[in-house]
From TrEMBL, chains A, B:
One Pfam family in the UniProt entry: D-ser_dehydrat
Organism: Alteromonas confluentis
Protein name, per record: D-serine dehydratase-like domain-containing protein
Keywords assigned: Lyase
Family: Belongs to the DSD1 family.
Length: 373, 373
């Protein structure tokens, strides 16, 4: 039996009770709206974690082909690769097809469709293709109202070895929605604009098998989606301080933390030095409200006002938001703390294994994760 | 023969000509001052890279025990672990000692010395210990003028299985020195304050075998160090935009870049979307002057004014600093670019392998790296 206190720090710790509770919350929401969930596995990139929030034979979403290969190796068959596909990745996609994986790829512009069409005879089986929509003027995607949407879909549909499957959208702008009302409005916009695209395509004789939307804030909002076929979301399983700042979760729901050890102090500055720097925490400052993360004691209880104010590669500096002196008996040399992450995807991305705990004292499991691209 | 253009992107590329040139520059500087260099290998964490800038039997500096084990496995014997040692790492240090590695550890406070002294009979061989000094009021370390320095050294010296070896300092404040004059002044301060500590210890009958200082800006400054025994530095081998902003190097010296592929555009915003997000670039904004990095063409030529303005996990957004429209023929779908990093340590830390090129077209070697803690 390994104790958390015996781990080499920094170490990434998963509170499995919280992970289970968060996963159940999203599944309940999807059941309520009557839609299947296609979890985005990019946060933890771990099949053991996915066994809780995306149990086989769940459909999943990935952000890299390395994730696709790793999850396919564990039996996941229905995989959406949600980043615009480029020619240097065709061969890797074809390898997945050859291995029997029902991978779906995304494109959002005519040049991407031209390139894919020209190369389509390369694919050993029909490749499922969705078109990414821009529903929130946020990042990528094509306008649901555009003529180009229809011509792209037709070109895909006509190509040998390509199968036009539908549309996907991600309302990334929901991360800027600070109220439940704004999140609900964004969910409505994400859903309605995506449904418009699907209707236009169906009217043009190009029905969409996949009409996919989602982000954690919109998926958990009060809006009841209609006209779509599935919901995607990812960070809900662990949550993080960005989600807590949006009131999508409570700080006490955050299932991922970084275990760290006190290596020293700078008493005149009221600083506590720990062995979690940006290599262990990531450089993600999230909402810019909590430095590099909030501090809890070794059991996960938030130490009010204490946060990681600065980081170097393997050093973190903890101080109180009101510059309070270091209390006696707290933060002693060699004692352990945990840091709640601004952005769970970025923090988890710094680790290849996670130490799972159910009692906040012992390690019940060690999970692995996909790496690279 | 693998072409860079065939790589799955994002990929981390090393321009070996630049790496060799940068390494030679630092070695020449150290030869000029007549001091040995103990390179910090935390930037690339790669034995194949170290073969150029820290060839065996060079002494090295590491930031994690995982680096220590990885480099020890390649034959490195004289290793300084430069992060304050805590009790949860004693067993891993002892394993290195048992494997014949002459590891040196660092402490900077009496509690750390107390803990180490109490546990010292654990170590299978005498463990070399240095005391970290605070020479610039920047992060960790104990004041060179303090009585505590002497009492800590004596306590280490008296302990069974501990060997007091000397002092180390790192003028991290040099990263805030924007002129050559300020860097030289900081080098003088770093060196003189460290030498004071060594003199005081020698006078107290505790001679220092190791009197170690360094940071890339101070090591490359005009100051001629005396009274010390070695210079440490790390990022000089690759350099980065932070170092270029300090005029420690030119942008054209930067040996590390991230190869990325254009996945689409948002023409109305003059955005180019690429497949390098913060997972491939890191979230490090460096001097806050270049977003998430400057853009070059596939051959490494800087595209003036183009930078990565925003990132998501696997998406980067490139735009011009003056919001210029996307020029015809540049940034076409599927074309490749390279991103120069703000902070090479953070960007390299996102990768487990590096693609090395000498001609900016073909991959001559693939290097691995240490991972984890």
């Amino acid at each position: 039996m390994t104790l958390l206190s015996a781990l080499i720090t920094p170490a990434c710790v998963i509170d499995i009770n919280r992970l289970e509770r968060n996963s159940e919350r999203m599944l309940t929401k999807c059941r309520t709206v009557g839609l299947p969930l296609r979890p985005h596995v990019k946060t933890l990139k771990s099949t053991q974690a996915a066994a809780i929030y995306a149990p086989l034979p769940s459909a999943i979403t990935v952000s890299t082909l390395a994730e696709a290969r790793y999850f396919a190796g564990a039996g996941y068959q229905d995989i959406l690769y949600a980043v615009g596909l480029t020619p240097n990745k065709y061969e890797a996609v074809n390898k997945l097809l050859a291995d029997g994986v029902a991978i779906t790829v995304a494109v959002d512009n005519p040049s991407a469709v031209d390139a894919l069409t020209r190369a389509s005879s390369l694919f050993c089986k029909p490749l499922s293709v969705v078109i990414e929509l821009d529903v929130d003027d946020h990042r990528a995607g094509i306008a649901p109202e555009s003529e180009t949407l229809l011509s792209m879909a037709k070109q895909i549909n006509d190509a040998e070895q390509l199968a036009f499957s539908g549309v996907m959208a991600h309302a990334g702008a929901s991360y800027g929605c600070n109220t439940q009302a704004a999140q609900t409005a964004m969910a409505k916009q994400e859903c309605e604009r995506t449904a418009i695209a699907a209707e236009r395509l169906a009217d043009a004789g190009l029905p969409c098998r996949v009409v996919s939307v989602g982000s954690t804030p919109t998926a958990l909002s009060d809006y009841k989606q209609t006209g779509i076929t599935e919901i995607r979301a990812g960070v809900y399983a662990t949550f993080d301080l960005v989600m807590a700042d949006l009131n999508v979760c409570a700080v006490e729901d955050i299932a991922l933390s970084v275990l760290t050890t006190v290596i020293g102090h700078q008493p005149k500055k009221n600083w506590v030095l720990v062995d979690a720097g940006w290599m262990g925490l990531s450089r993600d400052k999230g909402s810019n409200n909590h430095g590099y993360g909030l501090v809890t004691d070794a059991s996960g209880k938030v130490l009010d006002g204490w946060y990681v104010s600065m980081t170097n590669q393997e050093h973190g500096i903890i101080e109180h938001k009101d510059k309070l002196p270091i209390p006696d008996g707290l933060f002693e040399f060699g004692s352990q703390l945990r840091i709640l992450p601004n952005h769970a995807c970025a923090t988890a991305g710094q680790y290849r294994k996670y130490f799972v705990t159910r009692d906040n004292q012992t390690v019940s499991e060690v999970w692995d994760s996909a790496d690279g691209w």
